[in-house]
Amino acid sequence: TAFLHGELEEKIYMSQPIGFVDPKHPNHVCLLKKSLYGLKQSPRQWNKKFDEYMLSFKFVRSNYDHCLYYKTDSKNPVFLLIYVDDM
């Protein structure tokens, strides 16, 4: 469900999904408000959302690997590595 939270930066239209076609307007299209699985923009939009979330908790993104976040403001440093295997 992660990809469903990404904000789109451009207008994207899609045909009405099978099973949800409006019988009064079968030729109308839908304007997407959020990312969907299968859109080429979805992985990047999810990453932006995740990055904002991590930064809001005072994590720092590594300059060497953007999948690594760390927080060292206490005695116990925290390292978080993001790994996605199905892209």
UniProtKB/TrEMBL annotation:
Keyword Transferase: yes
InterPro entries in alphabetical order: DNA/RNA_pol_sf, RVT_2
Domain of life: Eukaryota
Residue ranges annotated for the Reverse transcriptase Ty1/copia-type domain, each copy included: 1-87
Keywords, sorted A to Z: Nucleotidyltransferase, RNA-directed DNA polymerase, Transferase
The keyword Lipoprotein belongs to this UniProt entry's keyword annotation: no
Molecular-function GO terms, alphabetical: RNA-directed DNA polymerase activity
Name of the protein: Reverse transcriptase
Organism, scientific name: Orobanche cernua var. cernua
Taxonomic classification: Eukaryota, Viridiplantae, Streptophyta, Embryophyta, Tracheophyta
